[in-house]
């Protein structure tokens, strides 16, 4: 159920364009590559870690810093195993898996050609493979009937590896916010409505990970749980959905490559009363970027019952006791960073040469500014560059590069999304002025050396609107 069924072209036709740029320039590397890699885990290189940290910072700014009604939390990845029984994850957090009888490869049923649009009811039908005549997409072999495959990773806590020591790597950050509801509410003295925001690693043993960092087995989530009166949940949901979509637009994603899609009743997760995804037009189709969920009182009521702890809220205004309902916004830091990378990718032609640039929002760009010498053989020029760099670095991520001619240095910075380059030339030694070049317009402005940082900070501020 989409609100908009138009299809439009992705920002980058081939995923490989982004994968190779990411590897070449140090955004993302395959994990453990010298051992042949490990499926569905990716490592962030020097530029990738900056980009992802900036994405998380931008999210935290919108969700915590700029709001009076949301506070942060950093709960453990390992939690009491009963949390996952109570939350329903041990029983229900699973995907439909089929296995090829000849090569023993396993597939997620709903991702097989011919099965992509099946309803949840159809996916659960034990005869569905037979009915649709589905075959192994690799060797054409017969496929088993679907079975549910639980996505949680298990490990053991303590020195004895027995059933009693089994614990799980969290598959979502949300549960940490629910079990801490009382701690946070009482220590921060928040009144309803209020939210708890978390950013952190989650783990899922995905059957068919892929599409680069889109679906991984180890990834980071940015989730916010908003606690409301039961009668306010529906309206609160309608406020958060456009707000979360607008966040991606605020940081540069083209509005036409975003849409919303409501989950059909039989597609809803076990905890959800209503769920709408914000989707992005990836090179491999429209896919979920973030979900907004009305979880009702499912989580707090179940945790209260299982733990024996009273998780009701007392509303002093109405003198009522009730279990709050939860509206959740659940996004992924990797998926968001990936989206910003894809959507900012540009190719144009400058003086007959192909130019690649990332038109990243300055708040997201790994480096805000590069300081470049026009002549690296002149020690006074290099010295002035380093003085400017040192001043910039007090407030911003800035970088120096003198390993090529100026044209090539500009191209390198364009390709990693650096919004501004400061160039020091021979005249700078006389007039104490330098040139600031803009990544997107490629216009240049001459400014006094002592104003460089102010100009950059002002431009960053202006980009925030
Ligand atoms: N607490 C609710 C929850 O976890 P979800 O839709 O399963 O909801 C929320 O996940 C977001 O986490 C997704 O929209 C996506 O951005 C991110 N995410 C989920 N699984 C992921 C994976 N395997 N790899 C990367 N990101 C993932």
Q: Order of strands across the biggest sheet?
A: 3-9-10-16-13-12-11
Class derived from helix and strand content: alpha+beta
The count of strands amounts to 23
> For the terminal residues, how far apart are their CA atoms?
33 Å
Main sheet characteristics: 7 strands, mixed
Cα shape? globular
Can you give keywords for this protein?
465 residues, single chain, 27% strand, alpha+beta
List the helices and strands and how they pair.
Blueprint: H1 15-25, E1 28-30, E2 42-44, H2 46-65, E3 70-72, H3 81-86, H4 89-92, E4 94-99, E5 106-108, H5 120-123, H6 128-132, E6 147-150, E7 154-156, E8 166-168, H7 174-179, H8 181-188, E9 194-203, E10 218-228, H9 233-250, E11 258-262, E12 274-282, E13 285-296, H10 298-307, E14 313-315, E15 320-322, E16 325-332, H11 333-344, E17 345-350, E18 353-358, E19 369-373, H12 379-393, E20 398-400, H13 406-415, E21 420-424, H14 426-431, E22 433-438, E23 444-448, H15 452-463
Helix pairs in contact: 2-11
The protein binds glycyl-adenosine-5'-phosphate.
Residues 172, 174, 204, 206, 215-216, 219, 221, 223, 288, 290-291, 328, 330-332, 334-335 line the site of glycyl-adenosine-5'-phosphate (GAP).
